[in-house]
Amino acid sequence: MRTVQTALGPGDPPVAAPEPEPGVTALSPAATAAARLATSRHTAAEVDVPGGRFRMGDASGDGNPGDGEGPVHPVVLSPFAIDPTPVTNADFARFVDATGYRTEAETYGFSAVFHLAVRAAVHEVMGPAAGTPWWLGVHGADWRHPHGSRSDLEGMDDHPVVHVSWNDAMAYCRWAGRRLPTEAEWEYASRGGLDGARYPWGDRLLDDDGKWRCNIWQGRFPTRNDLDDGYLTTAPVRTFAPNAFGLWQTVGNVWEWCSDWYDPGYYAHSPERDPQGPPSGSARVLRGGSYLCHDSYCNRYRNSARSANTPDSSMGNAGFRTVALGPVT
């Protein structure tokens, strides 16, 4: 049963979801030619992330109780190549144009939209989500209509695609010959080599001139956004500055789906080398926070912060970036 509940805040319980299709973790000889063709479909430049060892988890004491950001533990990762930005509306449009794919928001006929961003007829607004009244279920909201049926993507080709579920992201990956990052890969890439830092650029939220370095909420959540960073909802994917690895906006802007099942107790027994997450679960990991994050409610715009949602859930502040399957020879 699908829900518009975002499960991105304290106390939002995950609900049961069907088992997804397994992801591709290695290329067989028979798949080489197909993978080479699929790789050409994904046009984003890659960032090569060197393998290495890092401390995964919240080293600053900022973690949210119950999220499972600890204990801090050593992780060793193999090298990988990741998108410098989330998948954009233009990227996703190429996929849809080539395949005719319909997202789960389109199939179900609704998705979750932040209340100040809704652009829809009154009869299309279903009402607030339980426990998070700033989220409204809106008929006609989907990736092409991010704020409702009276919105479109004009001027937003370079914004991150939203209203995509984990299942939708996996469908794109299969077409593109890509995969979603593991949670460990995502955090390592987001840190940009700054071991233990809160943010991709260090420990201070603002720069030396008092300017914002990411797209999050300013003002009184959820009723007044002062727009000090310039955005009520999504920003173009190359806004602000990249981290030392060359990744843009890993924190703020939109939550990003990872491949792992979510378990708040997983870190206590996570394997040290290339962890893949729990073997099963009911929700998938999301990382990075979004334009709605604010320290009064959702202090999750940090490298180590975690959240989760069911694989079929979609909302106006979640997207994804992809990782290469591996070298094609």
Tell me briefly what this model is.
The chain is an alpha+beta fold.
Show the helix and strand layout.
Elements: H1 32-41, E1 47-49, E2 52-56, E3 73-77, E4 80-82, H2 89-99, H3 104-108, E5 110-114, E6 125-129, E7 132-139, H4 166-176, E8 178-179, H5 183-191, E9 219-220, E10 224-225, E11 255-261, E12 284-287, E13 306-309, E14 318-319, E15 323-324
Parallel strand pairs: 11-14
Antiparallel strand pairs: 1-4, 2-3, 5-7, 6-7, 8-15, 9-10, 11-12, 12-13
Give an account of the 3D structure.
There is one protein chain. The chain is α+β, with helices and mostly antiparallel strands. β6 (about 125-130) and β7 (about 130-140) form a beta hairpin. The longest helix is centred in the N-terminal third of the chain and has 11 residues, at about 90-100. The chain contains 5 helices and 15 strands. The strands form 6 sheets. A 4-stranded mixed beta sheet has the order 13-12-11-14, covered by helices on one side. The protein has a 3-stranded antiparallel beta sheet with strand order 5-7-6. A two-stranded antiparallel sheet has the order 1-4. The radius of gyration is 18 Å and the shape is globular.
Structural class of the secondary elements? alpha+beta
Work out the strand percent: 15-25%
Instruction: Characterize the overall form.
Output: globular
Low-confidence stretches: 3-26
What's the tally of helices? 5
**What is the tally of beta strands?**
15
| Strands side by side in the biggest sheet | 13-12-11-14
Share of helical residues? 10-25%
Radius of gyration (Å): 18 Å
What is the average per-residue confidence, as pLDDT, rounded to a whole number? Answer: 89
- Give the N-to-C terminal Cα separation: 43 Å
Major sheet details:
4 strands, mixed
